[in-house]
Design brief:
- A hairpin with a 2-residue loop joins strand 2 and strand 3 (about 45-55).
- The chain has one domain (about 20-60, about 90-190).
- It is built from 5 helices and 7 strands, in the order αβββααβαβββα.
- Strands 1, 2, 3, 4, 5, 6 and 7 form a 7-stranded mixed beta sheet that branches.
- It has helices at about 1-20, 55-65, 75-95, 115-140, 170-190; strands spanning about 20-30, 35-45, 45-55, 100-110, 140, 145-150, 155-170.
- It has about 190 residues and is α/β, with parallel strands linked by helices.
Length: about 190
Amino acid sequence: MIWILIFLCFVILIAAALYSRIYVTFNYSYTREKHILSVTIAIYKLKVFRKQINLSEELNDSLNNKQQPDFGSFQEKLKSIFQQLKSLNDAANQVLGYLQIQQLNWHTNGGTGDAASTGIASGGVWMIKGIITGVLAEKMMMKCKPGLTVQPHFQLLFFQTKIDCIVSFRLGQTIYALFKVMRKNNLKEKAYI
């Protein structure tokens, strides 16, 4: 009798875990001095993971360790990258369909020091933000109105941006989507063999 009760509790816990909604919060801040990404994962409003990454240090390390580019094999590398991106696109569409954007705020301040070029650059930033937001709204479920701002400073020369985004997903749906992607990739590999 006790084993049945333990088994039933175990099944209920697994069902609750698969049905639970997981919230991932991304905070990204870029200024001239710092380049920081902060990621927080919460389940049932309890924060279970928090990581802050100083990307300026990571970027400096990768630039210092970078090898000289080999232009002879550039075309082959480019073809390989495009093939990988093509195969990842289907997988990303499967998984992204189950994600919900709960909050998206993206604030940008900056200037080029010249009023005319600052105006042109501000328009370009608006265009890039609009394209990225449109792609996100097409691929994911947008549950909020994005807060996008561009604040031009016509006499100053600087750039800074801050992105706050909360994405949520159900664990069971995401596992199901990943299994579908893996199954589809296995079928493709068998077809090529």
